[in-house]
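Dear colleagues,

As part of the handover before I leave the project, I'm documenting each prediction I ran so the next person doesn't have to rerun anything. This entry is a single chain, and its sequence is reproduced below.
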Amino acid sequence: VNGPDAGTIQNNVMAFAARNGLAIRGAANSWTVTGNEFRGNAIAAGTNEGMSLEAANTINNTVTGNLSVSNGGPGFDLPANTGPNTCRNNTATGNGVFNAATAETPGFRVQGSNQLLDRNVSTANFGAGILVVGAGELGTDIAEKLVAHRDFGVEVVGFLDDDPAKRDLRP
C-alpha cells in the first residue's frame, strides 16, 4: 500500500515474497490490518519484514490479530515513522531467519515515536523479542515505558545505536 488512506486488509495469507509480505508506506493512513498471516517473506532481502509500517507520516494504522512467522527480517517492523500506530494481539515467531548478521532479527522492531504495542506475543525469533533502535531520547523513553510496565511481559535487554558513546547504555 503506497499512499492511499483508509482501508482494510483482512484474512489473507501473504507468503514467500522476495521482499515484505505487506508494507504500508508513503503517508498511507488509517488502515486496518487484521487476521492475516505473513509467512516466509523476505527471501531475497533479509532486511525486509513480514509486515511493515514504513516512512514518516504513515499514521493512525491498526495492526491486530495477525501472525508473522519465519520471515527473513523482523516479524513486524515500525521503522522511522512518527505514529501513532497500534500493534495489538499479534504473534511473531521464528523471524529473522535470513538475517543473522544484522539487527533486523526481532519479532517486533520499533524505531518511530508514538507507537503502541499491546498484548503481542514474540517467541523463538532469531533476535530480541523487541529491539529498540536508538539510544537517544526517544529510544530511552520507549525502554523506560516498557520497564515501568513489566506486566507487558517484555524485558528490554539493551539498545542498538551507531553512537559509540552509547554502546554500553542499559535500560
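The mean pLDDT is 83. Residues 5 and 29 are 5 Å apart (CA to CA).

All the best with the project,
I.
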